[in-house]
Amino acid sequence: MEQRFLISARNDLAALRDHYRRTLPPGLRHGQKHLSEALNRLADNPEAGIPLPSPQGLRALALPIIPFVLIYRIRGSRIEFLRLCGMGQAGRP
């Protein structure tokens, strides 16, 4: 299944990378590993995330080790990633 990061999610990724580079460089590699594992899991099972109460069909996949939430939606044969939020921000995609 094709996966696409929308601009908002790409901005979140860039901010996350910058944050880890400044504050905890070893955490960047650790976070990338867990994000990659989550993306592989979604490629195999796109409905692994929890459905959110949204008319847009949004879903949330928690990445508790990092701790972040990946907000996405399924559009045909594509997964679109909208946001990568800190656990406390997940209610604001």
Break the fold down into its secondary structure elements and pairings:
Layout: E1 2-5, H1 7-23, H2 25-44, E2 50-51, E3 58-63, E4 68-75, E5 78-86
Parallel strand pairs: 1-5
Antiparallel strand pairs: 2-3, 3-4, 4-5
Q: How is this structure best described in words?
A:
The structure is a single chain. By secondary structure, the protein is an alpha+beta fold. The chain has a single domain, classed as YaeB-like fold (2-Layer Sandwich). Helix content is 40%, strand content 31%. The protein has two helices and five strands. The protein has helices spanning 7-23, 25-44; strands at 2-5, 50-51, 58-63, 68-75, 78-86. The protein has a five-stranded mixed beta sheet with strand order 1-5-4-3-2.
